[in-house]
Amino acid sequence: MKKLYAVVTLLMAVAFAWAQPVYAQGQKAVPVEFFACNWQDGKDMSDLGKVIEKFGEYADNNDSGYSAWTLTPQFTNDPDGAFDVGWLGSWPDVAAFGKSQDNWMSKGGDVAKAFAAVVDCSGRHELASSIVLNPPKQAPTDGVVMFYACTLNDGKTGEDAVAAGSKLVAAMTALGSSPASWLFFPGLGAGDIDFDYWRVIAFDNYADLAASAEVYLNGGGWKKTQEILGPVASCASPAVYDARLARAPKN
């Protein structure tokens, strides 16, 4: 799979790079961020958990609408873009992102130092806009998430990708597979990438992933995907990550 050039929000790009795929469909994009991190010497998830507790106290007072998950690589094949643990965060809207960033710059120094003592996330901090195709049935907690790097076919646009993604959700739901799904459109920090967007699918656990895979492989899902998504974009094989809830919104 291509590098998981992940996700962080984008204030200025909402008005520019995000405008077409979002508002053309009458949908509202929300900001997401991604940090690709590696462990500092001798540190592991237990150390990060202590920092996450400290961050939770900070967020309760300064960033109450923020959600975040840690992502641990499970099924991947990308040594150039490998990382030990990722941090995927989201805000309810772009205004919340702006306020969050200002608060972090002025009040988050101690927490930032605590993170830096456990993980080095300086290599990649990226932004994207997230458009929901199939919302989760409840607020996401722990689970499994798949990222497909997708390239638009000649003449196709982000608007076409959103339309095809929504149509595919309906078709797969009719076949018995209805995981939560989104499209992420890269923004600031994505760099010189060779694809156009991520197709993101989340499951509560691997049993749910397997059930959807059965529909895809043996229940007609593969054919529907080719019929609906094939004329619009081509997607690489997905990378799979274990997601663990690090921060739920206070309210």
Could you please describe the fold and organization of this structure?
Helices cover 33% and strands 31% of the residues. It has one domain: Alpha-Beta Plaits (2-Layer Sandwich). It has an 8-stranded antiparallel barrel with strand order 1-3-2-9-5-7-6-4. Helix 5 packs antiparallel against helix 7 and helix 6 packs across helix 7. The N terminus is likely disordered. By secondary structure, the chain is of the alpha+beta class.
Give a short overview.
This protein is α+β, with helices and mostly antiparallel strands. It has helices at 19-23, 45-62, 94-107, 109-116, 158-175, 206-218, 221-228, and strands spanning 30-39, 67-75, 85-90, 119-134, 143-152, 180-186, 197-203, 233-235, 239-247. Strands 1-3-2-9-5-7-6-4 form an eight-stranded antiparallel barrel.
Count of structural domains: 1
**Helical fraction:** 25-40%
Beta-strand portion reads: 25-35%
Rg over C-alpha atoms, rounded to the nearest angstrom: 18 Å
Task: Identify the strand order in the major beta sheet.
Answer: 1-3-2-9-5-7-6-4
Break the fold down into its secondary structure elements and pairings.
Blueprint: H1 19-23, E1 30-39, H2 45-62, E2 67-75, E3 85-90, H3 94-107, H4 109-116, E4 119-134, E5 143-152, H5 158-175, E6 180-186, E7 197-203, H6 206-218, H7 221-228, E8 233-235, E9 239-247
Antiparallel strand pairs: 1-3, 1-4, 2-3, 2-9, 4-6, 5-7, 5-8, 5-9, 6-7
Helix pairs in contact: 5-7, 6-7
